[in-house]
Amino acid sequence: MTRDAPAAEPLRVILRHAAERLVAAHAAEDLDEGCLEADLLYGAASGFDRARVIAAGALPAYAEALATFEALLARRLAHEPLAYILGTREFYGMTFEVGPGCLIPRPETETLVEAALAAIAEHPRARRLVRVADIGTGSGAIALAIAQHAPSTQVYGVDVSGEALRWAARNMRRFGLAERVVLLTGDLADPLTEPIDVLCANLPYVPTDDYEDLPEEIRAAEPQIAVEGGPTGIEIIARLADQLPAHLAADATAVIFELGAGQAGFVEDLVTRALSAAGRGPLDVRVHRDLRGIRRVVEVRTGYPTAPPAG
Ligand SMILES: C[S@@+](CC[C@H](N)C(=O)[O-])C[C@H]1O[C@@H](n2cnc3c(N)ncnc32)[C@H](O)[C@@H]1O
Fold it and tell me: Which atom of ligand 1 lies at the shortest distance from residue 91's CA?
């Protein structure tokens, strides 16, 4: 970027003032978060990474970068999500492109990816080919993180939203994963034609009444279809549970669902009942907690070899 006349104040002072405005506008929870966001917005405006923004703190800011920064800051003060303004969000050590039309990947979803990678590594065909589905793929976060970290997989990412799938396709190309990832449009598991070994889903699970209480920032910017899960929150997950027997491979399989606080018991019942009714068993049920200690992910395995007794 070309540099023009420097502004009078040091960058550090300008960014501190911006952080205070973000806190006052309730766009940032506290000054630490405000400072981080101000740094990232100035980084986007100037082309600097955060380390360079901090290192430049004592120097005067440049008017051209400052004008762009003010425009980005105004969007953030109006509660546009930071990830949409920056155009990217880090997830599982990968930088995903995101924007209107797809859910911004959340840190708690990394718990699901961890569980899926373990289920893939322990699958009897782990050294050959494990077929994975990610239902409700959105930006492709889960499907692409799995494909990137588990090279012996063929991954299918399904979404009902064409807009979301366009983001997934951009990310698939960005990470060079088009050979092992197939994106499909449609309702839940309907578009799948291959039997699936490991089926993951982070479907909408916020109950309709709770949706109204979510921060304005989420309701105004992120697609409602990605967040609201129906009257109890688990209606869409329940429909997918009923579809499982028709789409899972006949031998070893794992089903891994992300859910909201307090939903684990209900989802465990839905999945185990659907699989038992189809004669699948014995079932190995696991619940994984996220970093906040919430029972976030339910996993049900069938047909995996049992570990030999210790000792
Ligand atoms: C909570 S978002 C998850 C996005 C992404 N997997 C992630 O973890 O960041 C739920 C996704 O499910 C999709 N979805 C909602 N209903 C669906 C359905 N009936 N069939 C397929 N996808 C659906 C939404 O479009 C949205 O992309």
Answer: 9
